[in-house]
What does this fold into?
Amino acid sequence: MPDPIHQFDINRIIPIKIFGWDASFTNSSLFMVVAAVLTVGFIMVSMSGRSLVPNRMQSVSEISYEFIANMMRDAIGDGWQKFFPYVFTLFIFIFVCNMLGMIPGFFTVTSHIAVTAALALLVFTSVIIIGFAHNGLGFLKLFVPEGVPAAILPLVVVIEIISFLSRPLSHSIRLFANMLAGHITLKVFGGFVVMLLSAGGAVSFLAPLPIVAAVALTSLEVLVAFLQAYVFTMLTCMYLSDALHPGH
Amino acid sequence: MSGPADDRGSGGSRKPPDDAAAFEARLSDLEAKLGKVKAARGDPREAEAEARIRGRGMAYGMRMATELVAAIIVGGLIGWGLDWLLGTKPWLFLAFFLLGFAAGVLNVLKAYERLRKDIAAETGGRIGRRVPDDED
It folds into this structure.
C-alpha cells in the first residue's frame, strides 16, 4: 500500500546553510512562492483593465476584496481599513495554498504545523503590539472582565490569560490538522483502490467503491480548504478587534 | 408567436373570448398552485439566510473543539513549567490543568456568544433570540 504520509515529506531543492542553520529552499518554499506569484500575477492581470464595468477576472478580484472588506467591517468596526492589506494577504495566501494542495501531486504548505504556527504567532504578536500601541496599558482590560466580584477576580484573570495564550495554539492546530487529516484520508481511500485491484479475482470488482468515496471526499476537501482559510481570517479579525477595543 | 397553432398562451388578447376565459381560469389555477408551493417552501430570502448561517455554523463547529483542547493544553503546559521551575510537582500542574479547562469552556462560551449575536443580527432576531430561562 502507498504510504499516505509520504506526500508531506520535505525535500531540499537548493540546499542553503546560513551559520549552521538549515535554510534550504525546499518543496514547501517552492509552493509558497508559487502561491505568492499566482496571487500577485492574477490580481495584477485581472485589475490591469480597471474598467468601470468589470469583466470576469476583474470581478473575481473585486469579489474577494469585498468578501474580506465586509468580514472586517463586521468584525472590527472602526479603523478596519488600516489592517486590510494584512488580513487580505493572510486570507489569499492560505486559501491559494490550500487550493494548490488539492491538485494531485502538489505539496500542501498548510499541512505543516511549522507554517501554520508561524502564521498564527505572527497574528498573536501583532495583536499584542497593536493592542499596546493603540490603548497603552488599557489593553490589559482585556483580561479583566467587568462585573466580576473582587473575591474571584484573580482566578478569573488567570483563566482569561490562559484563554488568551491558547489562541495561537488553537489558531494553528485547526488549520494544520484539517488539511493534514483531509489529505491523509484521500490518500488512504486512493490506496484502497490499488489494494483491491491488486488482490485480483472477484475482490477487484469492489474497487470502484473507494473511488466513489474519494470523489465525494475531494469535494468536501475543497469546501474545507475554503472554510479553514475563512475561519483563520475571521479569527484574525476578531483578535484584531480585541486589540483595538479591549473594553468588550 | 404569430401562427394560429400557437397554444402557448402567450398572447391572451389576440385569442377569441371563450379562449381568453379558459386562459384566465388556467392562470388563476396556476397562481393557486404556485401559492401552495411557495407557502410550503417559505420565503426564499429566509432560505438564503439559513444557508449562509449553516455555512457559518460549520465554521464555528470546527472552532469549538480546538478552542477547548488548546486551552487545556496551554493550562497544563503552564502548570508543568511552573512546577519544573518551583519544584512543586505535581500540584501546580493539577491546578493549572483545571484552570485550563475553565479557560477552554470560556473560549467556547465566547465563540458561542459571538455566533448567537451574528445570527441574531442577520435574521433580525428570529433565530438566535435569547429566550428567558424558565428554570429561574
Observations:
- Residues 190 and 214 of chain A are 7 Å apart (CA to CA).
- Chain A touches chain B at residues 74, 155, 158-160, 162-163, 165-167, 169-170, 173-174, 177-178, 227-228, 230-231, 234-235, 238 (CB under 8 Å).
- The longest strand of chain A covers residues 12-14.
